[in-house]
Amino acid sequence: MKTLNCRDAGFDCNAQIKAETEEAILTQAAEHAYSIHGVTVTPELAEGLKSLIHDE
Asked: Which range of residues forms the domain containing residue 26?
């Protein structure tokens, strides 16, 4: 299982995204970023988020 903490991406948010693959994490993160924070995840931002994903 892989995880991404929204707070690690610089937001004041306690959301934690969990999924089996990096791609699934990035998809969920993009949906969360847009719906909750009004941020569109660009390819450059997605690349940066990859470094924040860690295995449990």
From this structure: 2-55
